[in-house]
Known about the structure:
The relative contact order is 0.19. It is built from 13 helices and 19 strands. The strands form six sheets. The protein has a six-stranded mixed sheet with strand order 1-2-6-3-7-18, with helices on both faces. The chain has a four-stranded antiparallel sheet with strand order 12-14-10-15, with helices on one face. Strands 4-5-19 form a three-stranded antiparallel sheet. With 463 residues, it is of the alpha+beta class. The protein folds into two domains: 3-202 and 368-454, 3-Layer(aba) Sandwich (Aminopeptidase), CATH 3.40.630.10; 204-255 and 300-360, 2-Layer Sandwich (Alpha-Beta Plaits). Helix 2 (18-27) runs antiparallel to helix 4 (128-145) and helix 11 (376-389) crosses helix 13. The mean pLDDT is 95. The longest helix is centred in the N-terminal third of the chain and has 18 residues, at 39-56.
Amino acid sequence: MNRLEAIEQAQSQFDSGEFQKTLARRVGIPTESQNPERGAMLTNYLDAEMRPAFEAMGFSCQTLTHAKAKTPFLFAQRIEDVSLPTVFGYGHGDVIRGLDAEWKEGLSPWTLTERDGRWYGRGIADNKGQHSVNMQAMANVLKARGKLGFNAKYLIEMGEEVGSPGLRELCEAHQELFHADVMVASDGPRLSAQRPTVFLGSRGSLNFDLTIEARKGGHHSGNWGGLISNPGIQLAHAIASIVSSTGQIRIPEWVPTELPPSVRRALADCEVDGGADGPAIEPGWGEPGLSPAERVFGWCSFEVLAYKTGNPETPVNAIPPRAWARCQLRFVVGPNPDDILPALRRHLDRLGFSMVKIETVRDEMFHATRIDPDDAWVKWAVASIAQTSGKTPAVLPNLGGSLPNDIFTDILGLRTVWVPHSYPGCSQHAPNEHLPPAILREGLSIMTGLYWDMGAGDTPHDV
Length: 463
């Protein structure tokens, strides 16, 4: 069987409904890592779904743990010949909270439902659908060729949605076991639904709280207004000093000194498109002088995710004693991640906001990563995807969102090539998460072709 026949066989397998059945079973396991009551479900996903699927492909599997991790990891490998290239795969089986009550009528996060040309279900985009595509693609190559033609290693974790606790330490402890030539994985969205995409890293992410505790209780605004400070007002001014009214960051240490020319070149033909259900891009928001693609993939952004002062549900005529905001910085390669909060502290103190308390939300921070778009493995992957799809893939220096990619690049020393099988309007992390099955079908074709090429003996693994 040749390459084209293997891809056609993959498409037939998808069209038969077998892939949909597999994905429906996996979506049906409520693996909410943010819900402490779902611990058994997280383990069940590895034991009942991942391990049998890998073992059916001739992989040897082992469960790995680390004291810092709240959930186990599954590591699977198939070594055919040590002289062959080795590809490392990664996926996460945990999902964000289901938010069951907020889904459209007739939809459930734990039931894969087809409606209006879309498949709905929690995890279909993030990340069960994506690693299921890649696993099925390897199974397709094995069926067509009788072997992979390369060595494969795969790590499935169950804590990505809570910051991947223990993943860094696990990789540090098992560097030799995880050694590979390249990492090929899938997460996040394509640039648009119609255009295959490769991204080479991710923006870093740091969530933190800003709080002002002025006093123990509220005080009547008629008796004390104008005499005592209002934390809600103070915190609003503190936030306004961090970011302009049009979203431009005002702390120099939080942004790159420049947008590298290689990044500008890579993004020159990239048009951000969220599809019919995506929000309209606002040209006046964010860093001026940058294209939309440069603002989301080449620059940093600051967001206020939540803000509370007083009692929003039942306001009373009292000056609140406290104000709180949950904030987030998404950052690219350039700013020093260890100086993000110290720089904020210096900035606030300099402007008279020493009353603002800063606290991090997570122990783990996702660091920014970006490999060279001209890397030989990147060019090889882009050529394979173009051959299969007949389209020119978008090459993004990094994803706009965040992943634990720095663990793979910095600790394992891997070149990382991400091939996403989702799109910007998928409602990831929100109610009604979905994907058009056409994206999954094309993704399955692309990955079958890519894994076929991986085993065809013409890879840059000796570079």
